[in-house]
Amino acid sequence: MIPTRNVNIIFRRKMIGDVIKIPIRLSTSFQRSVCPKEPTKPSVHLPFPGPKSQELFKELNQIQQAESVQLFADYDKSIGNYLVDVDGNVLLDLYTQISSLPLGYNHPKLLKIFSDDHKIRTLINRPALGVYPGEDYPRMLKNVLLKVAPPQMSNVVTMMCGACSNENAMKHMFISYQRKIRGNDTDYTETEMKTSITNLPPGCPELSILSFYESFHGRTLGALSVTHSKAIHKLDFPAFDWPIAHFPKYKYPLNENMCENDKEDDRCLAEVEELIEKYRKKGKPVAGIIVEPIQAEGGDNEASPIFFQKLQLIAKQNSASLLIDEVQTGCGVTGKMWCHEYFNLPTPPDLVTFSKKMQVGGYYHTAEMKPSLSYRIFNTWMGDPGKLLILEEVLNVMQQEKLIENVNKVGKKLMNELFHLQYEFPSVINSVRGRGTFLAFNAADSKMRQKLILKLQELGINIGVCGERSIRLRPALTFQERQASMFLDALRGAITLVLA
């Protein structure tokens, strides 16, 4: 059951007869809120989880395994960057539904989308897009998804979620690899067709996908074979014998450890090459490489542009496709629409997957990757045009409100002040890193992280974790400098309380 704690105050805490006050800056300067009715500050008056959350948990847990539930939210009252729970606590949210809300809660322009009759019909008459798309679907793809496509990527496939996007993108890589060998992807022998039905080669060839330790690409069976972040994701499930390389583990601060980190790049890239050769000799050639720009669930591990440039070169030299998983890092949160734009790749990746803040799942791919036959990449819904309508308005707001500029401005403030905090409290936090507002830092150990998370929650901050001891920031694109100041003050207060 959800654990309970005795907490009934905010911004103060009795300790050995004293009251430690945590000053919270409500505003450093006047800023117009993108969501004007949002609260001015967090407010906590009941412990987490509160009595209503606990009752709802009991009800839900009788129906399904619900141990992952932290609280129950009131989504009618949640607004902007603030999550309100059913017990009336108001939390400044830096986690935003596992990084999936681009504009925060109940943005006024999003609430108006389905006031149009045509859009309501688009929402409720959910089509099997692979066979019966609506007349405006090509326009929607061109004007919404291709409008923000990574440079030089002209094709897009829509899906339901991040996991199924990666799953189908990997299938796409296998099609491409076999086409290179066969010379086409249309002429199949009778033997290939018959053996494919019984899971045997040559119809089902022995191919592999190379992935990295600490990676996370989803929880479907194929995606789990390239996911390596937590045992609980994988226990009891059969997996493919596919190669796993080490992703760079850098020393921080980066500017003080350049030589060591360059050697780490070289070590990991050498391992990639060795594994590709090893699996070629095993008769399981690597058809593709899947990698995150920043390993989110594995601990917000990052790698240099040079690492990704060389990784792409290795893929090309071995006739393998390069799939960059931007499910968490896409849609502007790193300060660019797509995180891999920082890497200055000489040519675009072969495939880029997306979901979360993009509202709809799917992947972009180069024109050369397009399959020749229908039904190769297919399911009933193939995405959701209703979600594309939401994304269309999200992108309009992003442009009108210059939200990627906002991400860079707020991210710079967060990064600079987090650097100061890690130098001031090196025994508590370290290794500040990231891009835009997609940031993270490490606690001294997992126990210290848990203490900080609980104190931050008491102070009205909802935040996430990843890896063994990392705390990650995943605010909405609408997160403002004044809210960054409130978080930073709360973090300083949490550190002070932990050390008291």
TrEMBL record:
<dbReference type="Pfam" id="PF00202">
    <property type="entry name" value="Aminotran_3"/>
</dbReference>
<dbReference type="GO" id="GO:0009450">
    <property type="term" value="P:gamma-aminobutyric acid catabolic process"/>
</dbReference>
<protein>
    <recommendedName>
        <fullName>(S)-3-amino-2-methylpropionate transaminase</fullName>
        <ecNumber>2.6.1.19</ecNumber>
        <ecNumber>2.6.1.22</ecNumber>
    </recommendedName>
</protein>
<keyword id="KW-0032">Aminotransferase</keyword>
<dbReference type="GO" id="GO:0030170">
    <property type="term" value="F:pyridoxal phosphate binding"/>
</dbReference>
<dbReference type="GO" id="GO:0034386">
    <property type="term" value="F:4-aminobutyrate:2-oxoglutarate transaminase activity"/>
</dbReference>
<keyword id="KW-0808">Transferase</keyword>
<dbReference type="InterPro" id="IPR015424">
    <property type="entry name" value="PyrdxlP-dep_Trfase"/>
</dbReference>
<dbReference type="InterPro" id="IPR004631">
    <property type="entry name" value="4NH2But_aminotransferase_euk"/>
</dbReference>
<dbReference type="GO" id="GO:0005739">
    <property type="term" value="C:mitochondrion"/>
</dbReference>
<dbReference type="InterPro" id="IPR005814">
    <property type="entry name" value="Aminotrans_3"/>
</dbReference>
<keyword id="KW-0663">Pyridoxal phosphate</keyword>
<dbReference type="InterPro" id="IPR015421">
    <property type="entry name" value="PyrdxlP-dep_Trfase_major"/>
</dbReference>
<comment type="similarity">
    <text>Belongs to the class-III pyridoxal-phosphate-dependent aminotransferase family.</text>
</comment>
<dbReference type="InterPro" id="IPR015422">
    <property type="entry name" value="PyrdxlP-dep_Trfase_small"/>
</dbReference>
<dbReference type="GO" id="GO:0047298">
    <property type="term" value="F:(S)-3-amino-2-methylpropionate transaminase activity"/>
</dbReference>
